[in-house]
Amino acid sequence: MPDWMWLVFLFVFGPVPVAASAIGAFYLYYTWRFRGTIVRIFEEKPLFIIPRGTPIEGAECVDIPVGNGLKIRGTYIRHYAGERKGVILFGLEFGSDRWASHTYCEGLLTAGYDVFTYEPRNQGQSDKDATYEPLQWVTDRDLQDQRAALRYLHSREDRDPFGIGVFGVSKGGSLAFLAAAEDPHVRCIATDGAFGTYTTMVPFMRRWVHIYIKNKRNRSWVPDWFYGLLGLNAIRVVEKKRHVNFESVERAVRRIRQPLLMIHGGGDTYIKPEMAETLFKQAGKAATRDLWVVEKAKHNQAIQVAGDEYHSRVVAFFDAHLADPMGSTTKPESPLLARRS
Length: 341
Known about the structure:
By secondary structure, this protein is α/β, with parallel strands linked by helices.
């Protein structure tokens, strides 16, 4: 047989093509067998008590346009101290109202930080988007609302010329990563219970696959990236069905350069601590980074467990990375921030 025929034979029937064909066959089978289940689980909403707050006297409520005639409702709460240290955008957890922010931000307000928070579309008193049904996962609509909130903060007459801090809980924390990744006006970021899409889906798929595949041998060989392909395939189905795009929180985390504080509950059964650790490790280019796992705390419950230490750690983080070291907000703006405002 001529050499060129041997080359053709090896190319078609050699070990690499055969392995690739086998993987492709398994992928097609697993997709056919399990995609519907993954889609159903992905669209399920978590079952936990959604916190609500009490309106705060003197808070400034505003309506912010986000496009297509829609407006979101936001609230600017001024600090309780003698002089302002900085401004913080607070990202709410899925389903809560803007007054719930006070529980997490009371220490910051007392320490001298103004806090602005907003309710995304279809949440609280913000407008309802008839074409959108939000889930706990971050979408392009959520990002659009956050961008509008950031533009509002940048446009205020009393804006902080040195930038802002971002603090978010659960889904609001996931969105905070996207804010830090794309807006140089964000100087530092703190999160509580934040999660990514890929880094949450894959561990759960591996953990619960035994329900559907009884044979351990058939499960043990499957690598994480294979589960990832199945998950991403299911996400594309949901995107098409709901007419949205799900944002990559992991990609945003890899892009951030600002100081980072991640808080997570050691007893979180929704977003396991190891999932938070995986996400944290991807923030290797952050200026400084710290992961605080609060033992025995459930999802978004670190503040109930840690109490005063929670507030003191959050305040210390923003004091170190956001507060004007001279105790004044009257220094000249940098040209970059002036152009963005």
